Amino acid sequence: xxxxxxxxxxxxxxxxxxxxxxxxxxxEEIICPVVQRYADGLLAGKILGHRCPQCGxxxxxxxxxxxxxxxxxxxxxxxxxxxxxxxxxxxVVTPVQYYGQEETEPFAKVSVLLDxxxxxxxxxxxxxxxxxxxxxxxxxxxxxxxxxxxTVAEIGNRWGGAGGCILGWRATGEPxxxxxxxxxxxx
Length: 187
Known about the structure:
6% helix; mainly beta; five-stranded mixed barrel; 187 residues
């Protein structure tokens, strides 16, 4: 379709033309020190976060600051987090087939509120649980990639995650946590 001037009338029945063009873009991002420390922790089997010295919220992956109180956080604010937690919310993704799409069946991505001292990992995969059984309050534990196979190649400054080190999360079999217990814990 060609561009038109505001006064110009365009035939709405004119054929639309487009061009398929596949491209690749590669770039290398230099990881900031706080994210590098988080990545090193994952390689060692630890989930690290920063606790704000003012409000007490725990950020995982650490950001180097608390966006609520606008305070810098440092290694002094670093905490090691549990690799167990509870589902606070989830999304069921139904794949739409497109070029390069590998998933064919619906799957769930969850946010996991880690056990004390807290912190939240978002967009995590649930393993060994049918999508219809994923629910808020379900207790999960991390399934770590074997140490020799761990990689942090996909971790960047804009989105931390834990892929490459944590394969996903599986149900612990413990009783669910009541959503009432999550009200003041989710941010």
